[in-house]
Amino acid sequence: MRGLLRIFALLSGAVAQTQLNTSEVSIMGASYSGNGCPRGTVSTSFSSDRMIITLSFDAVHPFIGPGATRSDSAKNCVVHLQVKYPSGWQFVINGTRWHGLFTLADGIRAQLYTLFELVSRDTQVINVPTVTLNGTADVSGQLFNADLPVLDELRSGCGSDTILVHDRWSLSGTKENVYQEEWMAGDTPLIQQLELKWKECKR
């Protein structure tokens, strides 16, 4: 009987070792740069189960209209996330989600583009499909959600890695003489979420 109990205890220990300890998963550092994210306008957070990283952008303000330049109508930001986790684990970026309260005038097209980069032993890069919103027919001060799967597997290093999130937001006109200065209703933030899937490390 004691032998059976010992075997059961060993097996239970083996199972426990294959479960990610979320208390050891954290964002060790976050920085950002670009004309779409001035200092103090981006915040980052991790969900309690460490499956979702949320980026909140407070100053994404592309502008289109008379006198607007290319840098006015297109804004960009690169967010660097240093993620630390147990050495026996790695993550895959499984998808991304855009969330916001948009207001777009008739004849205005907004596009949201993302590229993910993992700075591990071998830098890996993957593009995400572009989200396109067209004027008031699609969005007029309404809540908008876009869920995008990441079809190609982007696997992190073991124990730690840095995620580079390259975002670009742009406005363009589908007809002449259009004007758009603010596209987020009521100064609400633009939210982007990264969905992670955790796996035991394969070196």
How would you portray this structure in words?
There is one protein chain. Helix content is 12%, strand content 50%. With 203 residues, the protein is mainly β. The protein has a single domain (22-200), classed as Immunoglobulin-like (Sandwich). It has a five-stranded antiparallel β-sheet with strand order 1-4-9-6-7. A five-stranded antiparallel β-sheet has the order 2-3-10-5-8. Mean pLDDT is 85; it is low at 7-16.
User: What count of domains describes the coordinates?
Assistant: 1
**Roughly what fraction of the amino acids lie in strands?**
over 45%
The CATH topology label is Immunoglobulin-like
Helix content: 10-25%
Largest sheet: 5 strands, antiparallel
The CATH class label is: Mainly Beta
Distance between the termini: 39 Å
Molecular shape: elongated
Q: What kind of oligomer do you see?
A: single chain
What topology, given as strand order, has the largest sheet?
Answer: 1-4-9-6-7
Secondary-structure element series? HEEEHEEEEHEEE
Short précis:
Pfam families: DUF4360 (PF14273). Keywords: Signal. The protein is mainly beta.
Summary keywords:
Immunoglobulin-like; 5-stranded antiparallel beta sheet; mainly beta; elongated; signal; DUF4360; Secreted protein; 203 residues
